[in-house]
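Convert to structure. Protein one:
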Amino acid sequence: MKLILRHLSLPLLMAVTITQSTVAIAVPDPLNPNASAGKIVIPPSSSTPPPGTPDLTKMTPEQTQNLVEQAKKMSPEQMQAIAKSYQQAQKPAKPATPAPTEPVMGATSGDTNFVPKPKERSIEELQREEAFKDLINQVLPLSPDQIVKIHKYYDATLQAKATSPNPPPTPHFTSIVVNLDPGSQPPVIRLAAGFVTTVLFVDSTGAPWPLTAYSIGDPQNFNINWDSKGNAMFIQSMKPYAHGNLAVRLWGLNTPVMITLVSGQKNVDFRVDLQVGGRGPDAKPPIVDTTFNAKVNPILINILDGIPPRGSIKLGVTGGQGEAWYADSRVYFRTKLVVLSPAWTGTVASPDGTHVYELTPTPYILASQNGKTIDIKLSGL
C-alpha cells in the first residue's frame, strides 16, 4: 500500500477492494481531497491474495506503474463510487451458521481423515421414506404388539369354543351277559357325543358271533358302522343328549338281540363285550367234556371285568399266570390258560382270550398253555 502512494505522490490512502475476479483501487483526487481520482483494476493472477487479505507489496514495478497509469485516467465520480464500495466491503459480515453434522464412526475432531456427514437428506429420499411409511400403514395398520394380542385372543377364543361345559366322560370296558328270556331287561350301552363305542358279540366260550343284520331306532341321532360280516359294531352318538334302541340279528340265532342306547352320560362304554348264551358258529370244541349251563353266573362276569367277588379272599397263584379268589365255598380262577382239571362248574370268556372258571375248592389246577400241560398251585385256602 505504501509503495503505491509513493508512486502516486498522494497525501491520502487509497481504497482497495478485492473480489473473486478483480482487484480495485480507489485513488483520491489531489486537488479535491473529498473526491476520488479514479479506479484501478488489476486483472486476476496466480499472485492475487485471497479475499480479505490484500498484499500489494509483492507486486512488481511494472504492475505498480500500470496501476498508476490507470489511476490517472479515472474520473472523480468513479473513484468516489469505488471508495463507497470499499467502505461497505470493510463492514464485518455475519458468519454463516455451519450445518449440523454427524460424527463418523472411528474418527475424532482432531483426526485429519475426519469427514463430517451431513444430516440433511435429499427430497427424493424423504419422499421415498414417506411413501414406504404410507404403504406399511395400509398393508399392516397394526403394531407388532397389537398383532400378538390378537393372536392370543384368537387362541383363547378357539380354546373356549372347543371346551365342553361338562368334564370329559370316564371311559369303561364292560362285559354284559345278554339274556334272551321273555321279561328280561335289554343291555344298556352308554354313549357320548364325539366318542366311538365298540360293541363285540361273543358266545359263552368267548368265540366271536358274527352278525347278519341290524336296525337302528333313530338314524339321525346315532351313527353305526359295520363291515357286514364280522361281530363288531361301531356306534357313535350324533347329539349330546339322545335315546334310542338297536336290534341285532346274529348268525344262526332266531331271536334278535335288543340293545338300549343312551347318550350324555358321565360314564361312557368305550368297549362292550356282549356275551350271548349258547355256542356260536365259530365256537371251539371243549377240551374237557362237561355239562354246559346256558345260564351265566353274574359273579363270573364281574370277575371277567376285573371286579372280585364281595367278601372274597385273594389266593396266591404259582406255576402259571392267573388270579384266584375264594368266596362262598367256591374257587374262582381268572386266567388265559385252559383249565383241564378239576372240572369246572361254570365259565365265561372274553374276545381277548381271558377265561373265568368256577371250581370246587382245590389247591391244585392242571392247565394247558400253548399245548403244554402245566401245574398251578393255589395257596391261602
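Protein two, convert as well:
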Amino acid sequence: MSLLCKAYPWMIVSVFAPPLPSPLPSMLIATSRPGFEPSPPRGPVDLYQRRYHSPQVSRASACTLHRVSFCPVCHGDAYLRRRVEKAVIGALKRLQVPRTMSVLTYLGADSWQEVLGHLAAKRKAWNEAHPSMPMTLTNTALDHIRPVNKFQKNSFGEKAMLCNHFTNLQPLLHEDNAWKGDCWSSDDEKYWHENIIFQPNMTRIYYPLSAPFQPSLLDSMQRHAVADVSTRPGTQPT
C-alpha cells in the first residue's frame, strides 16, 4: 500500500487498467467475410507508376488511366514541360547560379508552346531521317548541345542565359547522350555559334564531332559499309 501512495496517478492507471482489445479478431473477421479479395500483386500499372511517377506534381493533375502525375502518353506537353524545368534548374545548380527568374525567362522564349514546338520539330526531323529508331518522350534525354560544364569559364550572365536557351536544348536518345558526355572541340564551338544558338529553325539533331561515335547510328553505318564492300568489283556478299 505504501508503494501505491508514493506512485504517480498515471502509474496506478497503467497498472490496473484493463488491456486494450487486440485488432487481430477484427482483421480475421474482415478477411473471412464473403466477398473479400486480397490486394493484387504489382502489375504493369504499378511498374509504370514507379518508372514515370513525378512526386513534384500535385495529385490533382494525375492521369487516371495510368495513375501517374504527368503521363507521357496522355499529358505529353505537361510531361515534357516538367522535364525541361528540371533540366534548367539542374544546370543552374551545376553552374552555381542562383535562380532569380522564371524558367521560361532562362529559356529565352516567349511561351512554352515555342519551347515544346522546337523540341517536337527536332524529334520529327530525327524520326523522318531514322524511321527504324524513332524518338519518343520516354526513350530520350533532354540534352544541352553545348555541355553545361563548358559554360564554367563564361561570365555570370552567359552561364544563366546561354546554357539554358531553348536553342541549346535537344532531345537525344539515352545511349547517345551517355556516350556524348562533355565532348566538345573548337570545331563544335564554331558550328554552335554559327548554326545552333539563337537559331530556332535549326531542327537537326547535332552530335559533337569530337565524340568517338554515335551508338544509335552504329548499326546503320555498319550496314552501309557492308553494302559498299558487296558492290565493289570482284567481291561477293557474305
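Residues 184 and 230 are 35 Å apart (CA to CA). Residues 76-94 form the longest helix (19 residues).
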